[in-house]
Amino acid sequence: RKDNGGNDVELAMQEPSSLLPHVAVDQRNPLEKSYPSIGFVPVPLDTMEYENRFSWSDLSFKNISYRVGVGADLLNVFNTALWTEAFLSDRWSINVGISTGSLNETDYLSEDDFIRDTGKPFREKAGITLPNKYVIKSIEASHSLVRMPLSLSYQQPLKHGYALVFGLGTMLDLSLKTNFTCRYQEPSGDIEERKEIIEDQPVTFNNMNFSVGLQKQWNHFVLQASPFINKQIKTVSYQNQDLIVGARVRLLYDFGRK
After folding, report:
1. With CB atoms 3.0 to 4.6 Å apart as the test, which of 39, 138, 164, 222 could cross-link to 156 if both were Cys?
2. What is the pTM of this model?
3. pLDDT value for 74
4. Rounded distance between C-alpha atoms, residue 255 and residue 66, angstroms
């Protein structure tokens, strides 16, 4: 190209980008939230996406709310328990308790009957020393348990403070005491009675349970009633029923949730 005087003029080629407005790009860690900006004014392009995205920080302990209370289980063993419930989200929670109770009494008609059911001689099991000429006529055994109920629950809210509560869990057997009462006949024909209490070794994990119940909340107070099914997954000598239907009632105080 020539200028007005007829002289050749060399034009400098400009990059296309120099003709566009300056765009500053955030060079932070790409794993962090970053927003492009025009000039120095940030423009959040997907704010709603970030607001709705799940974050593990939602499960931090500062966001967990708690319930504490008392309850009772009614099945072949009557348990009274202290409970705590920790919410991991609005609907999911972990339930942990400590309970005590007694199993229904088991009767044996003779020593042979006891061996068939437990696999051990009664005198050895109960630690009772009697001469062989003393004939055992009957044996009664009852068990005292300390248990830890443990479950994962999901709540489906309904209207007016009601909710359906679904639970899946177990009852861990922590401690077991067996109370024996035996009646025996002496050579003279007299019938005598003897009692023994022994510390036994429980099978810690031996069952699973499933429950569906109803919950009602008044401000911080929560009442739950849940029928449940308890299924033995391991055979234990102190539990002679494979499938048990029971009911659980709990009264809890809710810290922080309304």
Report:
1. 164
2. 0.69
3. 82
4. 5
